[in-house]
């Protein structure tokens, strides 16, 4: 199903946000929140698999895709406010939320600060942030900071996918928006690094599914177990051998599990 471009809307402070919608207009709303330094294209190869069950909504984060301007102070909480502005513009009083990586951190803040807007929550390969989070191995962080160009892209690719994944790095939609400036990329890095929802996680009231690959070196699987312990009534799904992009590489298992969880959660609400 073709993604419909809603076009640019204005956030509450006037910042232009590029928004995309696809799927049946009468289906439940599903907001998809992508990882750090990525536009809505992160979801291009996945969103079709959750239709026609859901009307999928994406937007380009500030500093990516078609959402460009003076960035100012950013946080996972401020990105969650942008998400609310998008839902308001589309007339979506409530939505299911599926967030991966930094998108999962933003999803936490959305569920905490606007619980009435979130019907169900899926958190993939993400973290509570702060001192209680399980840090990635030091050598991974050092390599990501040191490597440039093709070497950086290939290293990132190997963090996302197993050697069995046959799609080459040049076709991946998840390795960063290459139109971003150094300042925009740095701003996103700070947003992700400064997230800390540990204290408030027990306040999350939406039905929650937490998913992670057990071979994720970008964001260790221990974070999924922490989220599961902290979020009341949450469910946990660990994918054997999954890396940071497990939800794409193992989509034939993951996506039906997501759709089943969200459908059941909406039926029971």
Automatic annotation (TrEMBL):
Domain AB hydrolase-1 as annotated: residue spans: 28-249
Protein name: AB hydrolase-1 domain-containing protein
Species this protein is from: Brevibacterium sediminis
Lineage of origin: Bacteria, Bacillati, Actinomycetota, Actinomycetes, Micrococcales
